[in-house]
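Hi W.,

Here's what went into the run:
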Amino acid sequence: GEQVEQRPPHLSVPEGDSAVIICTYTDSATAYFYWYKQEPGAGLQLLMSVFSNVDRKEEQGLTVLLNKKDKQLSLNLTAAHPGDSAVYFCAVSVGQGGSAKLIFGEGTKLTVSS
Amino acid sequence: DPKIIQKPKYLVAVTGSEKILICEQYLGHNAMYWYRQSAKKPLEFMFSYSYQKLMDNQTASSRFQPQSSKKNHLDLQITALKPDDSATYFCASSHRDTQYFGPGTRLLVL
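Here's what came out:
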């Protein structure tokens, strides 16, 4: 079945720098991709969803790149600030509609120092 | 106002007991899910429901039983609790292919 690997597990950047998180997946038929943010003690906040016909998507300081050839999904936080400190998860959707399930990466703990 | 409510937020149980985790969503979604997050494993899918019908079950143990009494409810009953069941359980619901998550119930089994 689909597998998702995420790296790095930990990432520390100074305020104002960019942070890049990368996920690789195995199933070339995967159509939907997601990035979620989890703050301590909280649930998962959806950051961005990307369909497989999109190579690049930008929203509010976040850039998601999808490289279908290499089966790689990346999240770039430009000009990170301390409020971005959290655990970030990539996820891919397997199945459709009500039978879909998300396969998650292991998570990246991002620390942005001021 | 929170759109996906999970109750309780924290739960402590003794080994062998039974607990029910509550999930209600007010997003008007027809599909709901349960996921588990533990220290040992990344977020893992447990169940999916669509229009109150079980669509997928990836939980090996029958000790975990989802229950849907209303379209916007998907509770999770866990029987014969074990310490390994200690985890945070997340409920989610979806519109088309995008899933939105609740705040989670953190379960500790002693």
